[in-house]
Amino acid sequence: MRMARTNLVNMLGMLRGPGTRAHLVRGAGGSIVVAGGARVLSLATSIILARALAPSGYGVYAFALALVGLLQVPAQFGLDQLLPREIAANEAIRRWDLTRGLLRRATQLVSLSTTAIAFVTLVVLWTAPLHLNRESLLTLSVAVGLMAVNAYATLASATLAGFRRVVIAQIPMQIGRPVVFLATVASIWLLAERRLDPVTAVAANMAATAIMLVILFFLVRSVLRRHAVPRTAWFETRRWLGSALPFSMMAGLGIINAQTDILMLGLITTSHDVGIYRVAVAGAGLVPMFLMAVNNAIGPTLAKLNSEGDRGKLALIARLTALSGLVTGLIVLVIFSVWGASLIRNVYGGAYLVAWTPLMVLSLGQAINAGMGPVGLVLNMTGYEKDALFGLGAAALVNIALNAGLIPLMGTMGAATATAVSTVVWNVLMASRVKRRLGFIPLGFVRPQV
Description:
It is built from 15 helices and no strands. By secondary structure, it is mostly helical.
């Protein structure tokens, strides 16, 4: 009993401490809780939307969100990745004028880019011969507005993360937005006697994002005041843009890898197939959930250990993360293999039952992804961004080629196969680069030496 009490006291002391381990544990724990809550809310929302919109309408909604993700990459220009790094570095040298200048320039760039992208996209949608029906055109047009609001909200979240408010930075968009969105959609669905259209669904998403943007604005203002950031600003625009470009390219390739299947399904097949496939994607996203949650917290620690030359601890953290991700991912994979079909039928409805087969293919690819560990994050945090960029580029080419070849032949199964194979290719390429640069591979099935 005394030993247990002592261990508990030591754990609480570690959590409250100012050291690296305390920051890592608190950040990882908070990120896991937020990610878990966000995933539950995301699934709840997808269930309501899938039932309310039916496969065809849900497919239009999913295609619109995929377009939002694609357009948001040039809109943000990698600033969501640059801000946390630069703000943290400025804090270390007390250059608050640089932080003020960076935030001003980032806001200006996002304003210009979102305006230009929104204008061009709307012109193309309404003038080009895309053969879209009116409902699809209206849905995609509203999605352009969602893209713009999303870009500002992401910028604000990145600012909070730069001031090491990692958990608080995630809560509005990952928890607050889905709660408001879910409540809005559920209310409309019930009040309208279960009649909902994709235009209204995207508009509700944009409204929820706008509310979170207001909250994020006040949180950022509070943090700036607490750190006494001055009104004077110093600008290093050329350096910032040079640093943001690789991040933007990686983000673009990442979105291509994540959204190619849905976008190409929407262009080649029907919105009904997209709706079916979106259910499979939502389920497969549960497999690497633990790995993704921990990645949000361990990045700064990996960078710090690399700068200190402590490759041993860096490798240990990466391998422990991979091992945890593999175990949790395999548990979800087994659940899907045994009860997946029943879960889809009972939760989403019989119309979505055919999603089980692509769900299994996608889940297998994601289980391998989880077992390979945080390979991309390790490269980015240790200064080998070009290697990560090469891996993403190669995987994107494989993804596009396989989707183009397999979707016309196999439909949703073709998209699932292409995505799973490209995911494995990406992980193998990244792992080989980590091995070459750092001398280890963070594989979940390699026992970490503790």
